[in-house]
Amino acid sequence: MLAATPAVAFQAPITETPDPDPIPDWLNQWKAARAQWDEAPEGSADDKALWTKAEDLAQRIQEATPRTHDGAVAQLEWVIADSTEADFQYGHREVLETAVASLRGGLV
């Protein structure tokens, strides 16, 4: 289905959010771009455009200073989502996942 969609459709600018902290919105856009990239034919214009968009969003997430609780949690979620088991020392992923779950559950 994505193969029929022109690459131009994926080159929409990264949208800014009116919220005080854009990181959660960037995380959602990054997840969507990565999911679409997973479905795009390898080497296609769509593949390249989606990868570029995801990398641009990842850069924003990495460089931003969270202004809210949700922004800080979104950065942790991004680290987990964009990492493989080999990126962590034993137990580190589980600690991050537990921390995110606690923070999402209302721990302040």
Short summary of the structure?
Residues 1-22 are annotated as: Disordered. The protein is mostly helical.
Describe the structure.
With 108 residues, the chain is mainly α. It has helices spanning 23-39, 45-63, 69-81, 92-104. It has one domain. The chain contains four helices and no strands. The mean pLDDT is 86. Residues 1-22 are annotated as: Disordered.
Mean pLDDT over the residues: 86
Cα-based radius of gyration, to the nearest Å? 15 Å
Q: Which series of helices and strands comes N to C?
A: HHHH
SS summary, helix count: 4
Region (Disordered): 1-22
Topology:
Blueprint: H1 23-39, H2 45-63, H3 69-81, H4 92-104
From the structure above, extract its key features.
108 residues; mainly alpha; 4 helices; 0% strand
